[in-house]
Automatic annotation (TrEMBL):
It is a multi-pass membrane protein. InterPro entries: ABC_transp_permease (IPR001851). This is ABC transporter permease. Keywords: Cell membrane, Membrane, Transmembrane, Transmembrane helix.
Length: 333
């Protein structure tokens, strides 16, 4: 095999290689890591992050960023619990209404950022703060307990040996991969994130595409919120705290570029599983939660630095590939 082919393979499947190496290290540290039950646990833990991560991936591919997903997840858990316990609404209807509310939150975030022409990080951070406050106001700052047992199914149920959240994660990942790889709409997301001006000149309404990306992110954050609600078994105004950091770390490790226009669903999903593997393995090795925070932060910083380096390298290649004016004139002559 040629050296260039090996390098391309390593670059293409870096996240998978890291997962294998990380699994080997954790297995040596604690043999309990390499068991079927623990593997299912890792998949279950990664499913909620993965569903929210797929939504954030749409936003990042289109050239934005969404830091409000954690607050959306929190507000969904509170809304569903309040519907069941305090407002006399059936839990299924409450879930539908909560996901619709999350979708509207996603649309509002995109509308404010794109139409207002503000920095995506600042705009989504502002929405995150607003929604976090709303979640506390709705439940009075207290967790909502006493929810129906059957309403926990999407977070705790199983079909055969597979947890329901994992099945939802796989289905959503497959749909997202189809949309991004096989449809014109998917190409529009990539075009809007790669070169806004070129996309507009090609007839693509980049404003609508970016708002749609945020709306999809809100929808999937809502579904992730339903899964979180079932997992924790209550309405928690802090349920989504730090979720956005885990999501961003996962998708960037999975190859989704912070600069936009680049990313694959499979690798992003692998990044989500990798983050869950990391948390699970460090816990089994009795590493403190605070040390885990440092490690996750360092990994995120490293992934962003690598992404920035790769983006600059691509830009330099494009600049070097452009013919100089004198050469162009000579060729015309």
């Amino acid at each position: 095999m040629k050296k260039s082919s090996v390098m391309h393979f390593v670059k293409e499947y870096t996240v998978v290689i890291v997962m294998i190496l990380l699994g080997a290290v954790f297995t040596i540290g604690n043999p309990a890591f390499l068991t079927g039950n623990n593997f299912i646990t890792i998949l279950r833990q990664s499913s909620m992050t993965g569903v929210a991560g797929v939504g954030v991936m749409f936003v990042m591919i289109a050239g934005g960023i969404n830091l409000a997903v954690g607050s959306v997840i929190s507000i969904v858990t509170v809304l569903v619990a309040m519907c069941c316990v305090n407002w006399g609404i059936h839990w299924a209807i409450g879930m539908v209404l909560s996901v619709i509310a999350a979708t509207v939150c996603g649309w509002f975030t995109g509308f404010a950022i794109v139409k207002g022409k503000i920095a995506p990080m600042i705009g989504s951070l502002a929405v995150k703060t607003i929604l976090g406050g709303v979640a506390y106001i709705i439940c009075g700052g207290l967790p909502v307990y006493g929810i129906p047992q059957e309403s926990k199914y999407l977070g705790q149920g199983t079909i055969g040996f597979l947890p329901v959240p994992v099945i939802i994660f796989v289905i959503i990942g497959a749909i997202a991969a189809f949309v991004l790889n096989k449809t014109y709409l998917g190409r529009y997301f990539y075009a809007a994130g790669s070169n806004d001006e070129a996309a507009r000149l090609s007839g693509i309404n980049t404003t609508r595409i970016r708002i749609l990306a945020y709306t999809i992110s809100g929808l999937l954050a809502g579904i992730a919120g339903i899964m979180m609600y079932g997992r924790v078994g209550s309405g928690q105004p802090i349920a989504g705290n730090e979720v956005e950091m885990n999501v961003l770390t996962a998708v960037v490790i999975g190859g989704v570029s912070m600069a936009g226009g680049e990313g694959k669903v499979f690798k992003a999903c692998c990044g989500c599983v990798l983050i869950s593997m990391l948390t699970n393995g460090l816990t089994l090795m009795n590493i403190s939660e605070y040390t885990q925070m440092v490690i996750r932060g360092a990994i995120f910083l490293g992934a962003v630095l690598l992404d920035s380096y790769q983006h600059r390298a691509k830009q330099q290649k494009v600049v070097h590939a452009e013919p100089k004016s004198g050469q162009t004139e000579g060729a015309k002559a």
